[in-house]
């Protein structure tokens, strides 16, 4: 099996121990146990099955309103939508993907990426990969689920070496590519845009199925422009295609200041999105609905484009363009409100951390502070925050707290062998496995040689084990320590737990918490006063 370098050096140390001290090891298991399908006790606020049925039915209905051809712009994440699952307890992270699978015989996917994002090597913060790499990941994921990916469209096209290399790579993989170009005066010069000198210069993306899902690695890729360009070309060919937008947030049929919608504003604080009442919908129907500023601001331009392409605009408001049914599937409003308040608090700490590391702004933090007040939430509502700070005060060193899903509070403190986050994970696993906390699931004798390797041979100044090193050591110990095996088997039970540390963690530790499904926040301060971290 291919090993992570950290796994390699932990195993190397244990093999050296065997050679030097005659310790007898059974076969080493280098992989974590398969994640069990364990139900995490939580208050369900969202009916996922109802959502899948309603959403797919509504999209079929929208397809039928046009000439059996609908371009559906997918906003947000098509799968791994953990924001939605956090603020709507019961929403599954892959719900939108599962919904599409119900339409897979009718649907094909076009993945959109901007040439500017390819050239700048724009990164996805959640996966740590570039947008062009994520296009390949998305294609693999869709095809692995049995969905048909028809092509990739490169928007804002420019003949840069990086862009041409990406096109060649896709073509070698038998993935069709199409080019859409910059249009002078976009988006306000409607006459130029909707003409042979505008959309007419773009490649016509050849599609086969009635539902064409337009998705992208992230925002700003040009999904809407691709949809409108395709409408222009379809109408020139006599096909009366349609356009719709599928974006989960803000939820249009719950109140403007509902915590679920406020949590969306917190999540997009860096984009400066603002939820607002849709004035066009209110005027047309006398109904109050919620949308966000960018869609409201661009709607008059879209109306003009639709009229020029189709002869008339099929929609009277930005809300009309949407097909989202999530608001109809909230079954426990208070559960969703509380989950959303917790999400706003987590976003606050994330923004504070971003400011500390130079990737965020004061404006983001001020905005989320205002959202906290509007949601009637305070930082103390996140129980692990005061708990970790109190433990830090007691131990006079960095500390961590984790709340299990049943409410039990677990602590970790800094020691000579382990950092607070590593100690926290081991303590939580022992608690879940019913192992006395004084029992060692990793012997100190196994940890010290790893520390020597880190400091004496690999140049690390921090001898304490990171969380990934700790879990690898635990998995090796599980080969002949039944209690270590019991602890390791509890890893899936950590998913959905809340944790807070009294200092900023390293990127390695943050990623480990994320992979385990633990909702982590950190106090915005470094353990040591240094310029470089």
């Amino acid at each position: 099996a291919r090993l992570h370098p950290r796994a390699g050096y932990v195993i190397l140390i244990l093999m050296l121990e065997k050679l030097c001290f005659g310790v007898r090891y059974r076969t080493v298991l280098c992989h974590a146990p398969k994640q069990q399908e364990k139900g995490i006790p939580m208050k369900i606020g969202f009916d996922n099955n109802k959502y899948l049925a309603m959403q797919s039915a509504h999209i079929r209905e929208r397809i039928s309103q046009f000439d059996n051809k609908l371009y559906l712009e997918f906003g947000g994440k098509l799968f791994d939508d953990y924001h939605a699952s956090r603020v709507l307890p019961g929403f599954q992270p892959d719900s939108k993907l599962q919904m599409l699978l119900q339409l897979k015989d009718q649907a094909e996917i076009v993945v959109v990426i901007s040439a500017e994002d390819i050239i700048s090597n724009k990164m996805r913060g959640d996966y740590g990969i570039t947008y062009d790499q994520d296009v390949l990941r998305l294609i693999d994921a869709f095809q692995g689920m049995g969905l048909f990916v028809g092509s990739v469209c490169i928007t804002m096209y420019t003949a840069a070496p990086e862009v041409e290399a990406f096109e060649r790579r896709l073509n070698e993989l038998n993935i069709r590519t199409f080019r859409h170009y910059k249009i002078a005066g976009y988006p306000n010069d409607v006459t130029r845009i909707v003409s042979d000198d505008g959309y007419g210069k773009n490649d016509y993306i050849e599609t086969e199925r009635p539902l064409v899902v337009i998705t992208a690695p992230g925002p700003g890729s040009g999904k809407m422009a691709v949809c409108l360009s395709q409408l222009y070309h379809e109408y020139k060919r006599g096909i009366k295609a349609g356009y719709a937008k599928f974006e989960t947030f803000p939820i249009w049929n719950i109140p403007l200041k509902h915590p679920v919608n406020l949590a969306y504003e917190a999540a997009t604080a860096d984009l400066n999105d603002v939820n607002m009442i849709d004035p066009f919908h209110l005027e047309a129907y006398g109904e109050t609905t919620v949308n966000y500023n960018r869609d409201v601001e661009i709607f008059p331009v879209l109306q003009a484009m639709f009229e020029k392409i189709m002869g008339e605009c099929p929609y009277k408001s930005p809300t009309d363009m949407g097909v989202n049914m999530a608001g109809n599937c909230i079954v426990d409003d208070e559960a969703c409100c509380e989950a959303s308040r917790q999400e706003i608090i987590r976003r606050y700490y994330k923004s504070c951390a971003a400011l500390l590391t130079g990737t965020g702004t004061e404006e983001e933090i001020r905005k989320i502070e205002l959202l906290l007040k509007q949601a009637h939430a305070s930082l103390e509502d996140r129980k692990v925050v005061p708990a970790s700070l109190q433990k830090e005060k007691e131990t006079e060193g960095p500390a961590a707290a984790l709340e299990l899903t049943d409410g039990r509070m677990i602590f970790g403190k800094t020691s000579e062998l382990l950092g607070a986050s590593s100690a926290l994970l081991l303590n939580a696993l022992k608690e879940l496995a019913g192992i006395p906390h004084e029992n060692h699931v990793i012997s100190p004798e196994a940890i010290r040689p790893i520390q020597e390797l880190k400091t004496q041979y690999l140049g690390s100044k921090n001898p304490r084990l990171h969380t990934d090193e700790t879990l690898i050591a635990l998995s090796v110990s599980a080969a002949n320590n039944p209690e270590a095996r019991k602890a390791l088997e509890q890893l899936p039970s950590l998913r959905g737990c809340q944790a807070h540390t009294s200092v900023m963690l390293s990127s390695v530790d943050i990623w480990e918490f994320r992979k385990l499904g633990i909702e982590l926040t950190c106090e915005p301060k470094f353990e040591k006063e240094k310029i470089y971290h």
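Residues 14-40 have pLDDT under 50 and may be disordered. The longest strand covers residues 107-114.
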